[in-house]
Write a structure and sequence with these properties.
By secondary structure, this protein is mainly alpha-helical. The protein is built from 14 helices and no strands.
């Protein structure tokens, strides 16, 4: 039997309970740690540091740095700081302590705030691209009049992209149900799972907006030099980044934040099952309802899985052949 050094470290002594007037909760399961003398939760078995528990409790009482705690004081600064850290999940989940209790209301408020940021960035990118095309046409094509070339923002397209991102929450939730027994064994609260999904969703949305802006800005000098846009593989590779970052965010959340064994395996299985729950119904719906893979539903799936068209071309004939069987 191995002894955890956290529970046997003499420096990791419990607080003076006669002077501590507030309760301390286990960061993983919420068990009240008051009056305990060892740094191990009797409910879920988590080994912790009393200093971290006390510091996190004090931060929570005074207001933490995340949007959850500062949304009513400095909402813009807290949102920008949280969204920026969501871009780097390896820093986010190391900096965010498990001892900070998730707040469901502000977490849900973070979703429309992130969606609004995505729409603002998309509108700015479309406007810059529109003005650049006017300049490019005037320089290389000799056009001088642009009366019939007004700027129009494709709001419906961006709302569809956001809708696709929101709908991904359902297959992710279904995939997590595979680990229900493990979650129950670790006594992981649902609020922690919600925090992981909201921050992972914020990660993907912010990365999507950033990639759109970078591709637009990068295309301008390339187009000026070659008079053509980037090759198709550049857009395909860039489109795969949000999916990779989603896996990275969930992997660090399970392994570093929740500190569960096999956290990265959790992330891989969750993403694989989520892809299964999305792709298989998409295949069936595209073949049996649309009778083709060229439709809006399949295009929405391809936004999440850029290589999905390779799969569709390999399976299209098989599904159509099965569909025509008597």
């Amino acid at each position: 039997m191995t002894i955890d050094p956290i529970t046997t470290d003499p420096c990791n002594s419990p607080p003076d309970w006669s002077a501590t007037t507030y309760d301390l909760a286990c960061p993983r399961c919420g068990y009240n740690l008051r009056m305990l003398t060892v740094a191990r939760c009797p409910e879920c078995g988590l080994c912790f540091s009393w200093s971290e528990i006390l510091r996190a409790a004090e931060d929570e009482r005074n207001g933490s740095w995340t949007f959850e705690y500062r949304w009513h004081r400095k909402p813009l600064k807290a949102f920008i700081q949280t969204a920026g850290l969501c871009l780097l999940p390896w820093r986010l989940w190391r900096r965010l302590p498990l001892t900070s209790t998730p707040r469901v209301g502000p977490l849900l408020l973070l979703i429309p705030a992130t969606a609004l940021l995505f729409l603002v960035v998309s509108a700015a990118v479309d406007l810059v691209w529109h003005e650049y095309i006017k300049l490019f046409s005037a320089t290389f094509r000799g056009q001088r009049s642009f009366a019939g070339f007004p700027w129009s923002w494709p709001l419906d397209e961006h709302l569809r992209q956001l809708g696709t991102l929101l709908l991904l929450g359902l297959p992710l939730w279904l995939a997590v149900q595979v680990f229900r027994q493990t979650i129950a064994r670790y006594r992981i609260r649902k609020a922690h799972v919600l925090r992981i999904f909201v921050f992972a969703w914020t990660n993907v949305v912010v990365w999507s907006g950033l990639i759109e802006a970078v591709l637009t800005i990068g295309t301008m000098p390339y187009m000026w030099w070659s008079q053509t846009q980037f090759p198709a593989f550049v857009f395909t590779a860039a489109g795969m980044i949000p999916s990779v970052m989603l896996l990275t965010s969930i992997g660090f959340a399970f392994s570093t934040y929740l500190r569960v064994r096999g956290g990265w395996l959790w992330a891989v299985v969750v993403l694989a099952l989520a892809a299964f729950f999305v792709v298989v119904p998409g295949l069936l719906l595209s073949v049996f309802y649309y009778d083709a893979f060229s439709n809006a539903y399949w295009d929405a799936i391809a936004e999440w899985f850029p290589g999905i068209h390779l799969l569709s071309s390999a399976t299209e004939h098989a599904f159509l052949w099965l569909h025509r069987l008597p």
